[in-house]
Amino acid sequence: MADNIILENNSFQYRSSNKAITVDQFNPNDIFLSHLSLKANDINYRPKNTSLRLDQFSFIDKSGFSLHNLGFKAKLDDSSTTISGLELKTNSSWLTVDLKMDYPSIKEFIHFPERTKVDLQMPVLHLALQDALFFKPDLSNDEYFAVATKHPLTGKLEATGTLDDFGIHNLHLTGAAVLW
After folding, report:
1. pLDDT tens across 17-75, in order?
2. Coil, helix or strand for 145?
3. Phi, psi of 30 (to 5 degrees)
4. For residue 32, which of 16, 48, 49 has the smallest C-alpha distance?
5. What DSSP state is assigned to residue 162?
6. Residues whose CB falls within 8 Å of the CB of residue 73, separated by 6 or more in sequence, listed in order
7. Among 167, 164, 73, 161, CA closest to 118
8. Element holding 3 (H helix, E strand)
């Protein structure tokens, strides 16, 4: 159990090979994160009952990709997992999510995940395709992608069901979707 974990303005570097350093593109084998901050509270672990409140997780990758903030409340017990108030903000995109998963037991969840009941609520979605350029810069040469970047995909989503029979009950999208 921990009341608070706070990291402010840290750096993290990971390099898995001696290949050339990449700049302007995210490379999972050559990561350098700056301005890394983490603020977590109410961290509790007991067998079959865990909870966490992540108030802030943010960083800037050397590629220029920035996670402005990730925050949520999470609870895991023997029969459910809840992630509430999840807010994710990047350079150009953001979303909010509430997720509830119900299962008979952790053991059933591990061995038969398809039986898990899911309730997904995404009341805010703003997806700007520009963020993809940090991971695949050559997309900028695609004329359709270039047009789509001018129209962010916005909307909301509500979906429920089991992992093997997941139904979208309410989907409202505007923006880039009109190009399809």
Report:
1. 777 677 778 988 889 999 999 999 989 999 889 999 999 999 999 999 999 999 999 99
2. helix
3. -150, 85
4. 16
5. E
6. 51, 52, 53, 54, 82, 83, 84, 85
7. 161
8. strand 2-15
Cβ pair 80, 105 in contact under 8 A = no
Q: How far apart are CA 138 and CA 142, in angstroms?
A: 8
* Pairwise CA distance, residues 109 & 101, whole Å: 10
3-class DSSP assignment, residue 47: coil
The DSSP symbol for 129 reads: G
Amino acid at site 123: P
Do residues 156 and 125 touch, judged by C-beta distance below 8 A? yes
Distance CA 138, CA 126 (A): 23
- What are the residue ranges spanned by the domains of the chain? 2-179
